[in-house]
Amino acid sequence: MNSIEPVFRILSENFPGDVDILQLRELTTWHTGGPAVCITVTTIGMLADLLGLTAREGIPWFILGLGSNVLASDAGCSEVIIRLSGGLARTEWHRSGNRWDLRIGAGVHLPSLSGAACSRGASGLEFAIGIPGTVGGAVFMNAGAYGNSLADFLKSVTVLDYRGSANIIPVEECCFAYRSSRFQKERTVITGVTMSLGLGDSSVLRSEGKRILELRRKKFPLQHPNAGSVFRKPADRISPGKLIEDAGLKGRTVGGAEVSRRHANFIINTGKATSDEIAELIDIVRESVLSSSGVLLKEEIRYLGRRN
Ligand SMILES: Cc1cc2nc3c(=O)[nH]c(=O)nc-3n(C[C@H](O)[C@H](O)[C@H](O)COP(=O)(O)OP(=O)(O)OC[C@H]3O[C@@H](n4cnc5c(N)ncnc54)[C@H](O)[C@@H]3O)c2cc1C
Fold first, then answer.
1. pTM of the model
2. Is the CB of 171 under 6 A from ligand 1?
3. Active site includes 239?
C-alpha cells in the first residue's frame, strides 16, 4: 500500500469530498514532483479543525500557495498539502481619506491583487504585478522586486498556529528582512493580512504595471517552467546571476534542467526535467560558484519532500 493512503483515508473521513491525491507537478511552476495528499481549505473554521486533526494524529503538513518557489520531490511527499481558497482568498477594500485599507486573504493571487490595486487607484503594489504567487507565499518569503517588498505595505499578519489558535501579529513583529520573515521559522499558517495603500492615478498606475511586465518579459525566461530566482543574493548583495554567468554556467544542463541563457539565476525545465535533475544542477551551480568566486550561494527556493 502507498504510504500516503492511510493519511488520505483519515483526512477523507473527516473532510469528505475535500481531499485528493494530486501530482505536485500540477501544483508547482517548475512542473515537477510526485504524488501528495492535498486538501483545499476554504474557511478559518475548516483550517482550525484540520490543524487540530493533524496535531492529534501526528500528520505533517505543508502550505502550498502557487508553488512558484518550491522544488517538490519526484517521489512526492508525506506532508499533507494544504491550499487556501474560497473565504481565505478574498479581498475587502475600504477607502478612508487619502488611503486604501485592505483586508486580504492569504490565498489571494498576488498579480491579480496588484492589477486590481492599479485599476482602483491604490498605489504601492505595482512592483508585485509579475510575482506569480499568493499573498500568503509572498508574506512568508517577503517577496519583492524593484526596491519594494510586500512588508513595506503591511499593517498586520494573521496566522493560525499548529493547533489552530489565531494570532494577529503587527508588522513590526514579523521580522521581515531580505526574502525572510519570522514565519520561515514557525509552524504557522498565514491566513490573511491587513495593508494600507496610498492613492494614485489609475491610468498612471496601470501603465507602470504594464511597463514592469514588459521589463520582466524581456529579462526572464518565462516561456519555460521555472521558479524564479533559485539563489538568494549573498550578504554583500552581489548578483547571483552574475556569479553564475562568470562561472561559465549559462546553458549548463542536467537532463531536462538548464541554467537559463537569458537569466543565469533561473533554472528552466526545458520539457521533461525531474526535480532530481533540477536539484543536481543546483548543487553543481553552488559548487562551481564557490570554487570560482569563493562565494557560497544559498537557495531562495524551498524544498518539499525528500531530496535524494
Ligand atoms: C517567473 C517567476 C518570477 C518570480 N519573481 C519573483 C520576484 O520578482 N520577487 C520575488 O520575491 N519572488 C519571485 N518569484 C518567486 C515566488 O513567486 C515568490 O516567492 C512568491 O511569493 C511565492 O508565493 P507562492 O504562493 O507561490 O508560494 P509557494 O511557492 O507555494 O510557497 C513558498 C513558501 O511559502 C510557504 N507558504 C505559502 N503560503 C503560505 C501560507 N499561507 N502560510 C504559511 N506559509 C506559506 C510555503 O510553505 C513555502 O515554504 C518568482 C517566481 C517565478 C516563477
1. 0.96
2. no
3. no
